[in-house]
Amino acid sequence: MGKEILALPLLLQLEKEQLLQDTLLEEDVVHLQVVFQFASATRRLKLLHEVYIKTKIYSGENSLSRLEKFKNENIWIICDGFLVRSGIVKGILKFIDSSNNVSIFDKVIPDPPLTVIGSGVAIIKKINPSVVIAYGGGSAIDTAKGILYFAREQNMIDKVNFIAIPTTSGTGSEVTNATIITDTETKIKHAIFDDSLLPDEAILDSNLTLSVPADITANTGIDVLTHALEAYVSNKANSYSDALAEKAVELVIESLVKCYNNGKDIEARSKMHEASNLAGIAFNISGLGINHSLAHQLGGRFKIPHGLANGLLLTNVIDYNSQDVSTLKKYAKLLYKTGMVDKIKGDEFAVKVLKEYINSIMKIMKMPMSLKELNIGKDEFHKVKSLMAQNALKDGCTKSNPRKVNTLELEDLIGKIYQ
Ligand SMILES: NC(=O)c1ccc[n+]([C@@H]2O[C@H](COP(=O)([O-])OP(=O)(O)OC[C@H]3O[C@@H](n4cnc5c(N)ncnc54)[C@H](O)[C@@H]3O)[C@@H](O)[C@H]2O)c1
Ligand SMILES: [Zn+2]
């Protein structure tokens, strides 16, 4: 070879013309072309973003009428007992034609445990439904996903049309490929990620959220904010997830406290319902981060509601991630985009405002601000802190966190919220 080929990283920084203008032999040129093709292919690979949006979304007041299309189907509704006892389930039954065979599984409980999934799998095998409707908060939707996942894995059922109808504005599970299942023995929440878990349709009718009590409105609303923030700063974030997360945060700022103050404010409820859905699509594209990895431990171990667990951690995680300058800039960008801070004030000030905003809405919504306030024993907490950090490191959300984290740092973060 007439001229030594430059190392690939250096080559990547140079323009093709720069290299070819020199006195190269013909064989060098061919070789360089191959190297360039390889370089541009690897560049392309690095830039590849997977954006897969499978679920058809029907949003708005009349969206439940979508259920009227089902005729002569074998429909299985998965929801929690409260929705049946309170009569909320009638909100969808009235749209289902009498030609259908309808049965209800009402064993859903918050933070769905493996045992409930197991009993659901035994039932679905017998029923072999053609339509499954998950109706409720994230726990109902995740239970349905878990049952479908294991039943399909074991070839127990035929093709199912899977419809998700959220009744909380929180998890966005109606548009995600995840289900979070709790192993009650080990007290660990495990995430299964699989595109087969994506519902075929999501129906968003904010009227269904009017009955959500104030504390659950607060918890689930903070979950939405955490999804949007984690998706925004994730190391897999891209223009698609950014756009969705920005809009979700804008809607949260506009409407979460309004929903808390007046649960019957349908305009605010509708905005939160959309925010929840948008944030769900955002994190389904770009992933979450250590806020969720740690919240999963708090939920599994101490049964702290998912959104509240996220809220307790949120400002500490922002502090931790902001030590990385590019992440600090990204948080700040969000504040500029939403008009909360003028760019002239600078990035550090913007992140300070973000943390103050979170603290103040949590206080307005009367959310507990520490594990101590939740009556979690100090000794018990310190005994399991390190194990929770180890499990958080293994959680599927950790890999998309913008800063690489170790167990000690996770332990430190979780320790900060005891007080
Ligand atoms: N799959 C995902 O992508 C994903 C994402 C985030 C969280 N999650 C999981 O979702 C679960 C949390 O879901 P959630 O926050 O929606 O809470 P939830 O589903 O556990 O419901 C909380 C409570 O609200 C009640 N409720 C629901 N709808 C109501 C209504 N319309 N009126 C009155 N009460 C109502 C329920 O009965 C329950 O008691 C956790 O297990 C969490 O790990 C899943
Ligand atoms: Zn969440």
From TrEMBL:
Protein name in the entry: Iron-containing alcohol dehydrogenase
Annotated CDD domains: PDD
Keywords of the record: Oxidoreductase
Sequence ranges assigned to domain Alcohol dehydrogenase iron-type/glycerol dehydrogenase GldA in this UniProt record: 55-205
Signal peptide positions (record): none
Top-level taxon of origin: Bacteria
A matching Pfam family: Fe-ADH
Gene3D superfamilies (UniProt xref): 3.40.50.1970, Dehydroquinate synthase-like - alpha domain
Cited InterPro entries: ADH_Fe/GldA, ADH_Fe_C, ADH_Fe_CS, Alcohol_dehydrogenase_Fe
SUPFAM superfamilies: Dehydroquinate synthase-like
Domain Fe-containing alcohol dehydrogenase-like C-terminal: 217-417
